[in-house]
């Protein structure tokens, strides 16, 4: 609530209180001829009215009402933030959530540029000073790690270090900036097949959206991923421990060693295949080879149940097919990309719209016919 608005509300409410003596005056004049019981009841009613007026007046002064948008957000939200034993806070589905459903749309509390030349702590304190008390509280309520031990409390250095620790633990990339999104920040992490929610920044709209990558049952925890988890368990855990201060115990990290090894080799193979796929860029592999690699990534992803980035993968394959003037393949890959972009980024995302255009007319693809003609093949085998 902006300060100007609060002042306005208080002024408006104060007018009602100054109105009270008039009511009292009127009642007094009425009591002159009233019988004893009526006078007694009127007295009780009067005291109650004064009590209620004073009560509401002070309630109004002390309470900052939530905005309409905030109320709507809470009512419509398919999840709630709860305390989870041993994990701090987390997010639980309050009903069954369908694959691709919008989980949240959130504006940043504030954004800062990715690259700055001034002191990051001071910049954060300036950004925080511009927020309302409620917004500031939502920032300081967030958890943090890697706070320097040698800083003395109640000093400017301490305030800067605290703001920086909270920021570094919770910030999310937003185009060329980095921002704080207090609701999204409550999502815990899961690796590989364990995460079921994906967030993405919408530059044009200026907000973050999160979608359900998989169907989520009521009571299940909503997990996102803090990093690329297509790497072995030890490496993932090391990274997460260093940057976020926890040892990941997600469903994939908790697999028995033999199953964990199988999962690790699938994930490593996927990473390797992605690198091979990228070699089409400098013509090191043919369009057909690139499409074969895309199909293989897809099928290993199916085995691992790693579904993230599928929209992008199919869109890249559509790109390859369009470059080689394979009309059928380009449209088939684009249809697959549209389906998975809709799950991961939303059916209203820019990426989904681009795929609709390719499906409608592959020849309008920006790279159409930019390479030699080749039968690339669609995703049929996937
Ligand atoms: Zn994990």
TrEMBL record:
<protein>
    <recommendedName>
        <fullName>SET domain-containing protein</fullName>
    </recommendedName>
</protein>
<keyword id="KW-1133">Transmembrane helix</keyword>
<dbReference type="InterPro" id="IPR046341">
    <property type="entry name" value="SET_dom_sf"/>
</dbReference>
<feature type="transmembrane region" description="Helical">
    <location>
        <begin position="36"/>
        <end position="58"/>
    </location>
</feature>
<feature type="domain" description="SET">
    <location>
        <begin position="77"/>
        <end position="227"/>
    </location>
</feature>
<dbReference type="InterPro" id="IPR011990">
    <property type="entry name" value="TPR-like_helical_dom_sf"/>
</dbReference>
<dbReference type="InterPro" id="IPR053185">
    <property type="entry name" value="SET_domain_protein"/>
</dbReference>
<keyword id="KW-0472">Membrane</keyword>
<dbReference type="Pfam" id="PF00856">
    <property type="entry name" value="SET"/>
</dbReference>
<feature type="compositionally biased region" description="Basic residues">
    <location>
        <begin position="7"/>
        <end position="16"/>
    </location>
</feature>
<keyword id="KW-0812">Transmembrane</keyword>
<dbReference type="InterPro" id="IPR001214">
    <property type="entry name" value="SET_dom"/>
</dbReference>
<feature type="region of interest" description="Disordered">
    <location>
        <begin position="1"/>
        <end position="25"/>
    </location>
</feature>
